[in-house]
Amino acid sequence: MNFEKRPSQVAQQFLVGSIYWVDPYGAGRLNETFRVNAGKGDFILQRMHRIFLPSLMDDVVAVTAHLKKKGMITPEPVRTGDGMWYLRDGGRWWRVLTYIPGFSYEEKLGVQQLRSAAELIGVFHRELQNLGNVFQHRLSGFHDTSAVMWQLQ
To answer: Alpha-carbon distance 48 to 28, whole Å?
Structure first.
C-alpha cells in the first residue's frame, strides 16, 4: 500500500477508533510525526525514517511493557487491525503510540529543563537495568555522530 502524504488513511489502519483529525506534530529530525485525535483518545502516528527497521517495535514493546510494570508513564504501541505493531508502506513503515500530554522543547533548553531531562534519563536507565531483553534492532555506529549525519543526508 502507498499512504504517502495521507496519514489519516494510515491512522485508520490502527485500533484507535474513528479518526476525528490528524495534524503534523513537532519538528522531528528523523521521523514524520502526527498527532491523531480519535474515538479511543489521542495518539502519535509516525512514519519512520528508513534507518529504522520494523524489528524496532519488538524492542519498543518489551521496553514499554517493562516500564509500565515498574509504574512509569510511557507511550504504548498500538496494534493495527491485523494485529501488527506497524504498517508497511513501500520502503518505509508507520507506527502508532499512545499520546502522553506534556511539553516538547524545540529550542535551547534552560538549566532546569536540562537537569529535569537528565534526572528522567537516569530513572529510565535505572528501571531498565533488569529488563533481560535481547534487543532485536541494532544500528551499527549509531553513536558515531559524523557517520549518522552522513547517513541522514
So the answer is: 11
Identify the three-state secondary structure at position 29.
coil
pLDDT tens digits, 76-114 = 999 999 999 999 988 889 999 999 998 877 778 889 989
Rounded CA-CA distance 2/90 in Å is 6
112 contacts 35 by C-beta, under 8 angstroms: no
Which residues are 75's β-sheet partners?
none
| 7-58 tens-digit pLDDT | 999 999 999 999 999 999 987 778 999 999 999 999 999 999 988 889 999 9
How many DSSP H helices and E strands does the chain contain? 4, 5
**Which residues, 6 or more positions from 97, have their beta carbon under 8 angstroms from its beta carbon?**
43, 44, 46, 75, 76, 77, 78
pTM of structure: 0.84
